[in-house]
Design a protein that fits this description.
It is globular and about 50 Å long. By secondary structure, the chain is α+β, with helices and mostly antiparallel strands. Helices cover 42% and strands 19% of the residues. The protein has a four-stranded mixed β-sheet, with helices on both faces. The chain is built from five helices and four strands; from the N terminus they run H-H-E-E-E-H-E-H-H. It has a single domain (3-122), classed as 3-Layer(aba) Sandwich (Endonuclease, Chain A).
Length: 133
C-alpha cells in the first residue's frame, strides 16, 4: 500500500486524544505553526509533525507501556533523531487530566525550535501615559 493511502487510512481511525490535539493544531491554529497529521517519515508515520520546528508530537495509549513496544519506540526515536526530528510523547491519560500543561509544553518546544513572534495582543500593556514597548 502506498504511503499516502496508509496515512489517509490512519487519519480515519483517530483516537479521542488525536481528535482533540488535531483541533488545537489544524489550520495553523496553534500560534501559526503548520502541522501535518500521520505524516510519512521513512517506514514510520508521525502522529503530528511540524516541519518548520522539526517537531513530532506522539500520543501514547496503554500499549506503549509494554517492554516490546518501548523498545520499538526507542528505536524509532533514534531514527527520527538522526534526521534532526525531536519527539514529544504524551500519554492519553495526561492529555485528559492536564490539557493546559500539554499545550504549554508543546508551545514552549515550538518557540525554542522555531520561534514565532507573539501577537501584539499577548504582550503586557503599560499603564496609561507610558509608551508601549
Amino acid at each position: 500500500m502506498p504511503k499516502t493511502e496508509r496515512a489517509q487510512q490512519l487519519r480515519k481511525v483517530d483516537t479521542w486524544g488525536e481528535k482533540l490535539l488535531w483541533r488545537w493544531l489544524r489550520a495553523r491554529r496553534f500560534s501559526g505553526y503548520k502541522f501535518r497529521r500521520q505524516h510519512p517519515c521513512g517506514i514510520y508515520y508521525l502522529d503530528f509533525f511540524c516541519e518548520e520546528a522539526e517537531l513530532n508530537l506522539e500520543l501514547d495509549g496503554s500499549q506503549h507501556g509494554y517492554p516490546d513496544q518501548q523498545k520499538h519506540d526507542a528505536f524509532r526515536e533514534k531514527y527520527l533523531q538522526s534526521l534532526g526530528i525531536k519527539t514529544l510523547r504524551f500519554w492519553n491519560a495526561r492529555l485528559r487530566r492536564d490539557a493546559p500543561c500539554v499545550r504549554d509544553t508543546i508551545f514552549t518546544e515550538l518557540q525554542q525550535r522555531a520561534p514565532h513572534p507573539l501577537p501584539e495582543y499577548t504582550r503586557l500593556m503599560k499603564p496609561v501615559g507610558e509608551k508601549l514597548v
